[in-house]
Amino acid sequence: MKRYYFGIDVGGTKIAYGLFNEKNEIIDRHRVPSDKSLPGPLFFDSIASDIGMMLQRNSLTAADLSGIGIGMPSYILFDEGKILMTTNLTRIKDFAARDYLAGKLGVRVVIDNDSHTGAIAEHRFGAGRGFKHMIYCPVSTGTSAGIIINDHIFRGSYGFSGEAGHMLITPDEGVLCGCENKGCFMSHTSGSMIVRHIRQRIIAGDQTIMVELAGAPEKITAKHIEDAAKMGDALACWAIDHMAKYLAVWVYNMYSLLNINCFVFGGGLTKFGGMLFDPIRSYFDSYNHNDMPVYFKFAELGDDFGIIGAAQLLFED
Ligand SMILES: [Zn+2]
Hints:
Radius of gyration: 20 Å
CATH superfamily of the largest domain: ATPase, nucleotide binding domain
Oligomer: single chain
Structural class: alpha/beta
Bound molecules: zinc ion
Strand content: 15-25%
Distance between the termini: 22 Å
Helix content: 25-40%
Number of helices: 10
C-alpha cells in the first residue's frame, strides 16, 4: 500500500528529511549536513541511501511510498524536473534530478525551488492561511519570494519565478552579488552582503563597536549588527536602516506589480524583529499612498516548514 511519503528540504548547509504517514503526520525525521563536494548524481545517491535507511528503520520499502517531494535552493526547470544551477551547492547543476531519483527508487518524485515550497507550506498551514494571493519572503543570507496566486504557486515560464532578491535597484553600483550583478536588492538587504557594506565603511574610516564585538572587521555577522544597534552604535543603526529601506522598496515594488496584499516574512533576519520590521513597515507606508490594507506577517511554521512544503508538492492539483 502506497500510504507513506517523504518531504525533503535541501539547504546549503543541511538536508532535512520527513517521513509522513497516511494521516499526514511526520513519523520520522533525519538531518544530515549537505556535502558541497558532491556533483548531482552522487548528491542524489546519498539522498536515495538516506531514504533507504529511513524506510528500513520504519519496516517499510519503496513500494509503500506514494511519492517524494524535494525543495532545493536551485534554479529548476520545473516541468522537466531538471536543476539548472544551485547557488550554494555549486556542483549540482544541469542535472535531471527528478528522473534520476525516480528511476533509482521506482517512486514518483517532484522537485521545486525552496522558496516555492516555503510559500506552499505557509499558505496552506501557516501565516498565509485564508489569503487567496500571498507572497512568502525568506530574508536571510538570501532574499527571494514565493508567489501564491489564486491559491496556487506561480512558477513562471521556466520555473524560477520569485528570484526577486536579484531585481536591480542600483545597477552597476555597490556590492557584487552571486547573481553576477552589482546593485540587486539582495546586495543591499541580505545578512552576508550588508556586512560587506559595513566593512567598506570601516575601511573608509567609520568607527564602530562591532569591530570589538566581533574581534575583527572580517568577523562581523548579523548578530553583531543587532547587538551593536541595541547599544546605539551609529554604523550598526545605519546598516539596519539601509536594510529596512531597501526591503521596504522591494516589498513596495512587488505590491505595485502584483497588488498582492499579504507578505509573509521568514528566514534568519526575522530574528531582528521590530528593530528591522518596524522601519520596513514605516518606509513601506511612506511610499504607499492609499488606505487599502497590506498585511505583513511572520512565518508561523517552525523548523518543519521546509519538509512540509516539499511534501505538499505531491498534493498539487
Ligand atoms: Zn543578486
